[in-house]
Amino acid sequence: MSKNILLVSIFILALLHVACKSTSQTQAKSNLPYTTPPEAISDLDVKFVEDIAYDTHERAKFDIALPNVTKPTGLLLYIHGGGFINGDKDRVFSDYNVDNMRSLLSQGVAVASINYSLLQLGGDENVGVIKCLEDAKRALQYVRSRAQDFNINKDDIVISGSSAGAGASLWVSMQDDMKDISSPDPVLRESTRVKGVAVIQTQCSYDIEDRWIANVFQDYGIKWSMVAAVNAAGISQFYGVSNLEEYETPEIETYRDKVDMMDFMSKDDPEFWASNTLTPVAPPLSQDIIYHHAFHVRALKERADEVGLANVCYYGKDPILYEDPSGETYVDFVFRKITE
Q: Which of 124, 161, 267, 339 is deepest in the core (most CB within 10 A)?
């Protein structure tokens, strides 16, 4: 009898040890440095972490708002706008999009918002827009690599953004999976595929000369020289060149191919929701109209319909020129994709 009691006691102690070890590991993984949420979401039942580094450079940080729930949640990864020359991750909880974020958080969807490299001329960092885009890619992979820490389901992610952040979202999502399973960096071994893409005031491509002239502004009969004259500084920054003469090279032609989201687009890419309804439908004679013209979304839709990619699009202002028959809103689309 005593021998049996001893064996049972040893067995129970072993179980307790395993249980305590498991609990300790779980607590360690969830030991995030929570801080006070932004005022716009402070009344919601969420936990908030800010300035999490996803890479080594100064702007490679993100904030994340997590619904205070036990079950793993879906995630919206948001990329701010600002022409790749300004802007900040805190915009997601302070600009016109805040009501959308509140609605998603209330429905149990986590929201992360990233910073990324900004364009500048001169010096070793003069590498053009692709650096910003690659930051967005790495941020997505990093969040995925810590899915358990953030209590998110890494398979239920939608990527989203406004203006420059919209274009970055399309660049990441329209490519084949960019994970590198042979990389020594575990972050880069994570997938870049998402369940959906939601973009506002987007650009259709960053091959400005070919796509914008031929697909976006074809109605106006403009030439490349006209766009270059209006936006010479922006073009130099986009491609990491000091002047337009440096732009006319085979290297920049190859570069343009690497940032052409429309060329990447195929039927097996994630469904996208796009809306450019805030800028007048007018000749592209200012930077705002050039970057946010309704016909960027028209070009995306035409290409998507051509390859058979599902899309929900809205474009035009006073009047709306095209409105998806579903009437699906930004929030409804994000929630539908995450829960599919």
A: 161
